[in-house]
Amino acid sequence: MRRISEPAASIQQLAVQADGSWLVSLRLQNYSSIPMRFEAVDIKVSVGGQAAGALQHRPGLEIGPESADVVSVDMQPDSNARMLLADALAAGRRVDYELDGNIDAAPTDRGSSRTYKVERKSALSPTPGLPGVLR
């Protein structure tokens, strides 16, 4: 039986680049019983309660039933969020994050996509041995 469920997104890893931008490894989860095509991501990101910016990407990625995949998305964070994250990294402490936005996805055997609301609250911690990386 075909079951189409709302997809989900979470940050698997966030790496601060030399220029201050962030490389976000965004995990896209397909909870449906059929393969889904993930066409677009438009998600606002907050860290430590500060608006950080948006993840906007067109992955064009097919994810199998009840599976996940990861896409890398470059992000230019707001300066306040950049400083907050740098402070958390320097102190070796975790930082809470929130995602709020949309994913456009469709069954792989159909043409038109649907927009799904995405909301997530979680936390990232500095990764030992990998400077500037949180997981």
Write a concise synopsis of the structure shown.
The protein has 135 residues and is mainly beta.
Can you walk me through this structure?
This protein has 135 residues and is mainly β. 10% of the residues lie in helices and 56% in strands. The strands form 2 sheets. Strands 3, 4, 5, 7 and 8 form a 5-stranded antiparallel beta sheet that branches. The chain has a 4-stranded antiparallel beta sheet with strand order 6-2-1-9, with no helix packed on it. Strand 1 (8-16) and strand 2 (22-30) form a beta hairpin.
Mean pLDDT: 96
Portion in strands = over 45%
Calculate Rg over CA atoms. Answer: 16 Å
- Cα distance spanning the termini: 36 Å
CATH architecture: Sandwich
Number of domains: 1
State the low-pLDDT regions, or none. Answer: none
The helix-and-strand class reads: mainly beta
- The CATH class, by name, is Mainly Beta
Counting DSSP H or I runs of 4 or more residues, the number of helices is 1
Q: What's the CATH topology label?
A: Immunoglobulin-like
Number of strands: 9
H/E series = EEEEEEHEEE
Major beta sheet summary: 5 strands, antiparallel
Helix content: under 10%
Indicate the overall shape: elongated
